[in-house]
Amino acid sequence: MRILHTSDWHLGKYLEDFSRIEEQEKFIDELIDIANDEKIDLVLIAGDIYDNSNPPAKAETLFYRGIKRLSNNGDRIVLIIAGNHDNPDRLVSSRPLAREHGVILLGTPKSKVEPGEIGQHKIVDAAEGYVELEIGGERTIILTLPYPSEQRLNEVFEGVVDEEGMQKTYSERISQIFAELSNKYRDDTINLCVSHLFVMGGETTDSERPIQIGGGLTVNAASLPEKAQYIALGHLHKTQKVRNSSLNAYYSGSPIQYSKSEVGQEKSIFIVDLKAGQDPKVKKINLDISKPVEVWKVNGIEEAYNKCIDNREREVWVYLEIKTDKLITQAEIKQLKTIKPDILTITPIIEAFEEEKEEIDDFREKSILELFKGHYLNERKMEPSQELMEMFADIITEEGDEIEAEDA
């Protein structure tokens, strides 16, 4: 069986008030071409289809049309789970119609589908958290865990008072869910898992909306189902294999560079060849980044003009940083954006301000004792004695005690 793994489409997303819908349309066209050329049997989409719970009509239209084409009139099964950005109810609202086209939509960890025909294939068995499919004479069992927040699990983790306790409790609960569901795996089936989770140690970017407070809703790699031959994950936007684990657990990442922190990142999907009882053959295919994000750092307004003129015809989003000794006027900003309309932001880096910022940052990093010692050395040209430092420490301690007493 040949499987394609993708995730984190974020349809309807904007970057600094600029729509990315045209790039997303190109990605879906490319994805369909890859699926057809590679003769994919099953597509797993691991969450965050949309960028928010109330996606624009254009994003929903793109999703419905794209999935219909991807399923190839039910010849190819497409299994989709909700991520933390998705509204589960809205995502699955078209489920009855989608089933006719070979599309399975799952909104919450408690979701399930009914056995029976699906597109040109068959759901052999299904219940909460898993589905068994028959595709082209082969059987696959897929553990399905859409984004498992407390609310979507319909559970409350009581008695947890700190971040470490929350993380431990949450990981144990996810581990328990996978352990129970893993009993469905068999030696004669292709055993898969798809989920939308933040596994500890994963590399993040700025464009991911946190799915945890502090670190409470992260999961240890050991919580993932060890009997799974391949685990398709969503949430992290950088393509990567789960660290510190022997499992074949991968994040496909987002298909588009969605933030400044993703500059230079390749965007990919995974194709996985699997047979029952055998290790997977995992192939990464890099996607065409039709309009990458770049950061241009220039010295002065004239160099900025020249950079924009030289790159006027390139399809690229730009964060422009101009090192200067004066403020940039509105007229100059307008001229730059006239030359290169795809400039996202223009940031003047004023040298005097940079030096002042460095001094402020240095100031904030030092303790009150270090600051006193530095001031004394600067004024007296000699270091203060140990006795003087101890006296100063006593004074600031007494003042702190008085302030706390007044507050109480």
Summarize, please.
The protein is built from eleven helices and 19 strands. It is of the alpha/beta class and 408 residues long.
Structure description:
By secondary structure, the protein is of the alpha/beta class. The protein has three domains: 2-286, Metallo-dependent phosphatases (Purple Acid Phosphatase, chain A, domain 2, 4-Layer Sandwich), CATH 3.60.21; 293-354; 366-407. The protein is built from eleven helices and 19 strands. It has helices spanning 21-37, 57-71, 88-91, 95-100, 150-153, 163-181, 300-310, 330-339, 351-365, 368-380, 386-407, and strands at residues 2-6, 14-15, 18-19, 42-46, 77-81, 103-106, 116-118, 121-127, 130-135, 138-145, 190-196, 230-234, 240-241, 249-251, 268-273, 281-286, 293-299, 317-324, 343-350. The protein has an eight-stranded mixed β-sheet, with no helix packed on it. A six-stranded mixed β-sheet has the order 6-5-4-1-15-16. Strands 17-18-19 form a three-stranded parallel β-sheet. Helix 1 runs parallel beside helix 2 (57-71). Mean pLDDT is 87; it is low at 399-408.
Index terms:
11 helices, 408 residues, 8-stranded mixed beta sheet, 19 strands
List the helices and strands and how they pair.
Blueprint: E1 2-6, E2 14-15, E3 18-19, H1 21-37, E4 42-46, H2 57-71, E5 77-81, H3 88-91, H4 95-100, E6 103-106, E7 116-118, E8 121-127, E9 130-135, E10 138-145, H5 150-153, H6 163-181, E11 190-196, E12 230-234, E13 240-241, E14 249-251, E15 268-273, E16 281-286, E17 293-299, H7 300-310, E18 317-324, H8 330-339, E19 343-350, H9 351-365, H10 368-380, H11 386-407
Parallel strand pairs: 1-4, 4-5, 5-6, 10-11, 11-12, 12-14, 17-18, 18-19
Antiparallel strand pairs: 1-15, 2-3, 7-8, 8-9, 9-10, 13-14, 15-16
